[in-house]
Amino acid sequence: MIAQLSGELISTSLNSCVLDVGGVGFLLTVSTNTLNEISGKKGEKIRLFTHLAVREDALELYGFAFRDELAAFKMLITVSGIGAKSAIAVLGALTPEKFALAVTTEDSKALSRAPGVGARTAARIILELKDKVAKEFGAKDTGAPAFETAGTAGSSDVSDAVNTLMVLGYSRSEAISALAGLSGMTLEEMIKAALKKLSSIG
C-alpha cells in the first residue's frame, strides 16, 4: 500500500500530475483543490497523500495535498455507485470541510454541484454516510471531557462540528479535544480551526 509520495513535481494537467520519486515518474489523478494547491510548484519537492485503486485492467494512483481530503475521498468511495472518479469530482467541487458539512446538514444541492452527481446520487451519499456516522460514532460514549460551555459556540453547532470531523475519519474524542475552547466562530470556522489543530498534532 502506498500511503504517500514525496518528490519533484514534473508536470500538471487538467486532473493529474507527475511526481518524480527517486527517478521514477508517478502519474497521479488529483482533484481541482489539490491541483490548485500544487500549481506553480513545478520543479519543487512536494508531498501527496495517496490512494491506490486496484482494478482488473489497471492500477490508478490518486493524490491529495491534505489528509482530510484523502479521508473524505475514502468515505465517498464506500458509497454504493460512487467510484474513485466520482469521488474526485465531488472533491473538485467542494473542499473537504464543505463536503462534510453538506453531508451532516443534508445539503444535497451542495453535493449536486459536482459534475455527474445528480439529486439521487447526492441523496444516496447523504443517506449512506450519515447512517455510517450514526452507527459507528453516534451512540458511542468515549468518556471524553465535555466542551467548555463558557464562550463556546452553540451546542447545536458544536454537535454538527463533531459529526463533521468524524465523517472525515477522526474519533469522537479527537474531535471533542480539537473543538474545546473555540468560541465566537461559525460552524465552518470551527471545523477549519479544529482541522488545523488536528493536522499539527498528526
Structure overview:
The chain is α+β, with helices and mostly antiparallel strands. The protein has three domains: 4-64, Beta Barrel (OB fold (Dihydrolipoamide Acetyltransferase, E2P)), CATH 2.40.50.140; 68-138, Orthogonal Bundle (DNA polymerase, domain 1); 155-201, Orthogonal Bundle (Helicase, Ruva Protein, domain 3). The protein is 48% helix and 19% strand. It contains nine helices and five strands, in the order E-E-E-H-E-E-H-H-H-H-H-H-H-H. The chain has helices at residues 32-38, 67-76, 84-93, 96-104, 108-111, 119-138, 155-167, 172-179, 187-201, and strands at 4-12, 16-21, 24-30, 45-54, 59-64. Strands 1-2-3-5-4 form a five-stranded mixed beta barrel. It is globular.
Number-wise, the strands total: 5
C-alpha termini separation? 20 Å
Q: What is the H/E string?
A: EEEHEEHHHHHHHH
| Percent helix range | 40-55%
Structural class: alpha+beta
By CATH reckoning, the class of the largest domain would read Mainly Alpha
User: Which residues sit in consecutive blocks of at least 5 with pLDDT less than 50?
Assistant: 133-154
The number of domains: 3
Per CATH, the architecture of the largest domain is: Orthogonal Bundle
